[in-house]
């Protein structure tokens, strides 16, 4: 039996047995061939167009997404503003007494400016914000310049800035000066009172500054209930301090307003470095 070997030639995209050389291809086959080539070209072009359309839609969706994001950013900003302004009428009030910055070093001023930024940031995020006052705050003073330099949008903060003393702004009987040296414990936050924190950083610890200022003006004072809810934790340096930075004091007050729980509030503002822990944070030794 002889085997028949057939080799193939291609014409266009079609393949013909070699015995059928292109010259011999009938007109009918050629017509079909051209028709087929048109279909293939049309399909290719349709695929290209489809790809372009998908690409354009993707771009459009991405832009729409950005618009939406922009929208929600604006929306969130508006809500925050509304909540802060609501606090002006009905919220608890806190004042940072910035009248004691004269002898502060540049480094201390920078730290205070950063603490004010954190405090304001916490207030913006708070479910129940405070209405904030920055009193004894002199425009173009070294602290003012440092705040403007370090804190984006500082001059637009939604707070009350004033050069006046808090002593001239509020009835004295409504003032409670928060000071770690007070003999009174802060038990609750009263929206009819105005709570003052001292704009001091304890780089060069000046003991009892705010306590003496408050006593000198016959003001009520209170300290945070750290000793009441926390216990001293052994540490190498045997270091235990109840003196907190103003932003940590503020985080405690804010969390208390939200949760009405002092343990939760203290957890939010007293770092382990202070040498105090909550009883539930003690890990039993084996
Ligand atoms: C870094 S402390 C300055 C302490 C400073 N030796 C003084 O005489 O107030 C900054 C401010 O946070 C507030 N503060 C810090 N720890 C506090 C605490 N345990 N209880 C109440 N207020 C506190 C006080 O208003 C204080 O003036």
From TrEMBL:
InterPro entries: MT_TRM10-typ (IPR028564), MT_TRM10-typ_sf (IPR038459), Trm10_B_MTase_dom (IPR047911), tRNA_m1G_MeTrfase_euk (IPR007356). The keyword S-adenosyl-L-methionine applies. It catalyses: guanosine(9) in tRNA + S-adenosyl-L-methionine = N(1)-methylguanosine(9) in tRNA + S-adenosyl-L-homocysteine + H(+). Residues 42-71 are annotated as: Disordered. One of its GO terms (cellular component) is nucleoplasm. CDD domains: Trm10euk_B (cd18100). Coiled coil: none annotated. This is tRNA methyltransferase 10 homolog B. It comes from Engystomops pustulosus.
